[in-house]
Design goal:
The structure holds two protein chains of two kinds. Chain A contains 22 helices and 20 strands. Chain A is of the alpha/beta class. Chain A folds into three domains: 170 residues, Rossmann fold, CATH 3.40.50.970; 153 residues, Rossmann fold; 169 residues, Rossmann fold (3-Layer(aba) Sandwich), CATH 3.40.50. Chain A is globular and about 70 Å long. The chains are: A alpha/beta, B alpha+beta. Chains A and B meet through helix 14 of A and helix 1, helix 2 and helix 5 of B. The structure holds thiamine diphosphate. Thiamine diphosphate binds next to helix 17 and helix 20 of chain A. Thiamine diphosphate (TPP) binds next to helix 17 and helix 20 of chain A.
Chain lengths: 562, 197
């Protein structure tokens, strides 16, 4: 068989895995791979971001909207270490990625060679799996394993480090897709007894509540969730990452859980007699004080990752399984039912929340621009059909509250890690992953400055994302905490911002600025309807707070409306 | 025998106790690091650690002794089980395993010239043996529990200075009748690799 170089074997392996887009940044130790890539540009597109963190967040955005494995390239040393934040983000938010890093030649390993860093050691705690290839013969096998591991079971990031000599040396290429590793069992076998136990509890419950997380989206169980909820009449609440798994307009949908979630689902968590958690992991931003969480409820936890079960909340019945499979198994055992009175209790809470908070935020009479108002208008303008990529902070919480998702896989945000700077690069990745859908990035004036260089990537490849800055001149979420819990002591949260419009001009991106509420609608319409990338700088109230709020560490019952 | 099984916490038990983890893994570099990272994250100190080959080629056994609450250690075991190259992690309390440690004591040979008292103590009472006698030092070896090797240590100290002392990590086997190879066969046979929808 004709021999090819290790670097070409890598590219061919990626093609075998149906990779057609790579996000990356070159450098010395990965140059042979980039050179081989150059011969395959008819099959693989490469997006040159302006920072490796941008590359990996773009790969995350791409993966989350497309369901495919995101792939990124970086060189050794600083290139590899720049990936770490994104890898940690993908690990905690279960995003399948394969990151390829170049490494110094194997004979130099451990010698502090130029641009050597122990990326295997550094990335070990934040990857699902990692491996260093020092011999070109390993490439095909390891890459097929990498893809299998990244996407199966609970997905996650895999890092493969390839020494430069392995990239240069010759191998005969023979690719076989991995579908089994004896020490790795990603899809647990469902225990029928557990299904029956769970069904019995569900059938006897009076006030059950389904809590959905990203597991629904990852296992593509949106329809099964609907069947479950519609057959049993059980209301559904969603975590931050579960948003868009069920339409916000569905009659059984009762809202968003967690620290800045809706009033009803938080409060009713402690009145429910049964919590059915599906593909979610009881993050502390959802539970608050765990000793005062679900105090009247039995807990059924459907979860693919066994280490999540009983980790935070003790279950009565644990179903260790893929969400879709579990729900499909469960449905035939469930009685047709309805819970109108119980759902009406949520609607009563909704009224309270509307009167105390929402009404005041979206029907402002004064000439003030509030974040909530902006997002509400965008939600209406797009009919909740866009992919919304949020950054971290108030912009994220307000969007999660006010964007009324009507299509699945539409909410892309950094949940577990809360990585500021995520949204801009993730949005460009999302647009490439779903070119036909509208992608809107919603970012604070702080967060955009963490990865603002990616405007260049958006401009170079003409990626038609919409970028909305909610500009409050503050690190808003931190400022809110300072106001509420630190006596208004605004320690280092106010910023002197650059002129974002001139910056956008500099990158050749169409842009506009809104300061007057009278202009808001017109400008938002132009922003949404424009066929191309567009940055809209909306100057909002400086000291707006996001409510409701469950203060950190307190019970969900203590949710504050003001 | 369960691989990637689910240890479920029955009653949260806050008592700190000694636990032995026995982890069967593929023989791959870097695994020790992955395992200790998981223990470190939860601030669990390792009392002793031993890595060895098993009777099956390519399979290693990590035996790790830690002090922890049951609740915490169960979470750690579930997490270790998630590591891709871990075949199975098992959690044992003291009465569920056979276990031994080995200790070496280096003493000045002069001590033995004082009569046969030392030898009597060493050989008869503690079941230890003399591994090597050199002109200036003698090595004594004893296998047993940590308490046992410690007792001998205290006893020997009465006769003079202990020049050097080293104790191995624990090695342990479960009291159940089982064969590693059968465990591996079940792992290889399980269909749980594929999603059956
Ligand atoms: C990388 C990173 N650093 C720090 C933080 C802590 N943090 C959370 S929210 C926030 C403020 C964000 O400010 P901004 O981007 O302006 O958004 P706003 O809250 O005003 O909408 C900060 C600093 C973080 N989440 N990520």
């Amino acid at each position: 068989m004709k021999e090819i170089t290790g670097s070409e074997a890598l590219i061919k392996s990626l093609i075998e895995e149906d990779v057609n887009t790579i996000f990356g940044y070159p450098g010395g130790a990965i140059m042979p791979i980039y050179d081989s890539l150059y011969s395959y540009l008819d099959k693989i597109k490469h997006i040159l971001t302006r920072h490796e963190q941008g590359a990996i967040h773009a790969a995350q955005g791409y993966s989350r909207v497309s369901g495919k494995v995101g792939v990124c390239f970086a060189t050794s040393g600083p290139g590899a270490t720049n990936l770490i934040t994104g890898i940690a983000d993908a690990q905690i938010d279960s995003t399948p990625l394969v990151c390829i890093t170049g490494q110094v030649p194997s004979q130099l390993l451990g010698t502090d060679a130029f641009q050597e860093s122990d990326v295997i050691g550094i990335s070990m705690p934040v990857t699902k799996w990692n491996y260093q290839i020092t011999n070109a013969n390993e490439i095909a096998d390891i890459i097929s394993r990498a893809f299998y591991i990244a996407k199966s079971g609970r997905p996650g990031p895999v890092l493969i480090d390839i020494t430069k000599d392995a990239q240069f040396s010759n191998v005969s290429f023979n690719y076989k897709k991995c579908d089994k590793i004896r020490s790795y069992h990603p899809y647990p076998i469902i225990k029928k007894t557990k299904i029956k136990e769970a069904a019995k509890i569900i059938n006897n419950s009076k006030k059950p509540l389904i809590l959905v997380g990203q597991g629904i989206l990852l296992s593509k169980a949106e329809n099964e969730l609907l069947q479950l909820s519609e057959k049993t009449g059980i209301p559904v609440a969603s975590t931050l990452l579960g948003l868009s798994a069920i339409s916000c307009h569905h009659k059984n949908y009762v809202g968003y859980l967690g620290m800045h979630g809706n009033y009803g689902p938080n409060l009713k968590t402690n009145e429910a007699d049964l919590l059915i958690a599906i593909g979610m992991r009881f993050d502390d931003r959802v539970t608050g004080d765990t000793t005062k969480y679900g105090i009247n409820a039995k807990v059924i936890h459907i979860e693919i990752d066994p280490s999540e079960i009983d980790k935070i909340i003790k279950t009565d019945v644990a179903i260790n399984a893929d969400a879709k499979e579990a729900i499909l198994n469960l449905i035939p055992h469930l009685k047709k039912n309805h819970h109108e009175n119980w759902i009406n209790e949520f609607r009563t809470c909704d009224k309270v929340e509307y009167e105390k908070i929402i009404d005041k935020e979206i029907n402002v009479v004064e000439d003030k621009i509030l974040m909530a108002d902006v997002i509400n208008r965008i939600s209406n303008l797009t009919k909740g059909k866009s992919i919304v990529v949020t950054d971290v902070g108030q912009n994220q919480m307000v969007t999660s509250r006010y964007y009324k998702f009507s299509e699945s896989n539409s909410n892309i945000t950094s949940g577990g890690l809360g990585t500021m700077g995520f949204a801009l690069p993730a949005s460009l990745g999302a647009k490439i992953g779903q070119p036909k859908r509208e992608v809107i990035a919603i970012i604070g004036d702080g967060g955009i400055q963490m990865t603002i260089q990616e405007l260049a990537t958006i401009s170079q490849y003409n990626i038609k994302v919409k970028i909305l800055i909610l500009n409050n001149n503050f690190l808003g979420m931190v400022r809110q905490w300072q106001e509420l819990f630190f006596d208004n002591r605004y320690s280092f949260t106010e910023m002197k911002n650059p002129n974002f419009n001139i910056i956008a001009d500099g990158y050749g991106i169409k842009n506009n600025k809104v300061e007057n509420k009278n202009d808001l609608d017109k400008c938002l319409k132009e922003f949404i309807n424009y066929d191309g990338s567009y940055l809209l700088n909306v100057v909002v109230e400086k000291e707006e707070n996001v409510f409701p709020m469950v203060p950190s560490g307190e019970s969900v019952s203590n949710i504050r409306l003001e | 025998m369960k691989k990637k099984g689910l240890y479920q916490i029955k009653d949260p038990d806050k008592k700190v106790k000694e636990y032995t983890l026995s982890v069967l893994t593929e023989d791959k570099a870097g695994l020790l690091n992955s395992i200790t990272i998981i223990l470190n994250r939860r601030k669990i100190n390792i009392d002793s650690l031993n890595v060895s080959t098993t009777e099956v080629k390519g399979v290693s056994r990590f035996t790790i002794v830690v002090s922890s609450t049951k609740e915490k250690i169960i979470k750690v075991v579930n997490h270790i089980n998630k590591l891709i190259d871990v075949l199975g992690a098992f959690l044992y309390e003291e009465d569920e395993i056979y276990y031994q440690e080995i200790a070496l004591y280096k003493l000045s040979t002069k001590i033995f010239l004082k009569g046969d008292l030392v030898e009597k103590i060493i050989i008869r009472k503690y079941g230890a043996k003399i591994l090597k006698i050199e002109k200036d030092h003698t090595i004594i070896q004893k296998t047993g529990t940590k308490a046992g090797t410690q007792k001998l240590y205290d006893e020997l100290k009465k006769f003079g200075e202990i020049l050097e002392f080293a104790r191995s990590g624990r090695v342990a086997l479960s009291k159940k009748k089982r064969k590693t190879i059968n465990f591996l066969r079940t792992l290889e046979k399980t269909k749980s690799n594929k999603l059956n929808i």
